[in-house]
Amino acid sequence: MSAGKSSFINALIGDDLLHAANEATTACITTLSHDDQSKSTSACCYAYNGDLLDSVVNVQAEQLKTWNSDDRVKNIALQGNLSTYCRPAQGLALHDTPGPNNSQDPRHAQLTIDAIQNIPFDMVFYILNATQLGTRDDRTLLTTVKNELAQLQRPHEVIFILNKVDQLDCEKGESLTKHVEQAFAYLVDIGFTNPTIVPMIANAALYARKKLIGKPLSRKQRLEFANFRDIYLQDSSALLNASRVPDVISKNVKKYMQITSRKTTDTPADKSELYLLMAYSGLAAVVLIINRQRAALLQAQPRKEKAKHKVSA
Ligand SMILES: Nc1nc2c(ncn2[C@@H]2O[C@H](COP(=O)(O)OP(=O)(O)O)[C@@H](O)[C@H]2O)c(=O)[nH]1
Ligand SMILES: [Mg+2]
């Protein structure tokens, strides 16, 4: 709960459509599907018995928030031309789940288990809160999720995001590398083999993306963004160097950062910095991980299916 699951998806789509706050906000499963033919973003919500409750064209964050806090709603399905860097984007579906460790509402845990059992996904991003790693709740939940995943027949990859690393107090010796190593040992102890861990600042990624797209930041977001920029300037490779990702991913993020930081006449310096901040935040590694898997999935598909996806990356 509040580890940053909804913020992580918002960063991927460059928009704060999903409600994110330091409280038990997500009470249902929200599926966001990319369709590059969509002229508007439409959404529907469904009850526990599968009945359609409501639908809206040009959906706004406020509407999703209202549905999300409506006890009758089990699922929200949203479709639109999302601003994602994932390639191929067509057919991409992102599923946001409630935090299953909300002790005030046991339905949240059930919804997450339901999602694991019934949604045909290819990849799971498990968002760990860097400031609350290894609590008893967290261990119980991770063990449940691991056991549920072990029963699945279809292949899937599990990626761990160590989010909110901006909140670690490095001046008090909370070293990022040490934290990632601790997370690694913790996950191995639970039974995950050689887990991939991406340290991340989901909000930094989201704000950089919003600025690049030209969307305004709220006052609070502007203040937070200034703080993220400050820590980025101290060591722009800190998160990447601490991450535990396949070599090909870290090499490609490094390459991307090198190319972006070269002074060119066609990209203004402030824009380059935003791209770099986005890469620094962990988002570039995440997108490369997704793209690599989507390319592999596409490779395995019959020719007719491939034509539908129009690979552009
Ligand atoms: N400092 C910091 N705050 C974050 C980060 N990611 C998310 N948050 C904040 O954490 C709170 C919970 O986020 P949310 O996405 O709702 O978490 P969820 O319950 O896991 O979906 C919100 O106030 C977010 O703005 C991050 O990387 N750093
Ligand atoms: Mg949420």
Plain-language structure description:
The chain has helices at residues 5-13, 61-68, 106-118, 136-150, 176-190, 202-213, 219-234, 238-242, 247-261, 269-280, 283-300, 303-309; strands at 29-34, 42-47, 52-56, 73-80, 93-96, 123-129, 157-163, 196-199. The chain is built from 12 helices and 8 strands. Helix 4 links the parallel strand 6 (123-129) and strand 7. The strands form 2 sheets. A 5-stranded mixed beta sheet has the order 3-2-4-1-5. The chain has a 3-stranded parallel beta sheet with strand order 6-7-8, with helices on both faces. It binds guanosine-5'-diphosphate and magnesium ion (MG). Magnesium ion binds at residues 5-6, 25-26.
**Unique bound compounds:** guanosine-5'-diphosphate, magnesium ion
* CATH first level: Alpha Beta
Assigned CATH architecture: 3-Layer(aba) Sandwich
Quick one: CATH superfamily? Answer: P-loop containing nucleotide triphosphate hydrolases
Percent helix, as a range, is 40-55%
User: How many E-type strands?
Assistant: 8
Spans of 5+ residues with little confidence (pLDDT < 50)? none
N-end to C-end Cα span: 34 Å
Sheet with most strands: strand arrangement: 3-2-4-1-5
* Cα radius of gyration in angstroms: 19 Å
> Count of helices?
12
What name does CATH use for the topology?
Rossmann fold
Mean pLDDT: 90
Helix/strand-derived category reads: alpha/beta
Whole-number total of structural domains: 1
What form results from the Cα inertia axes? globular
The percent range for strand residues is 15-25%
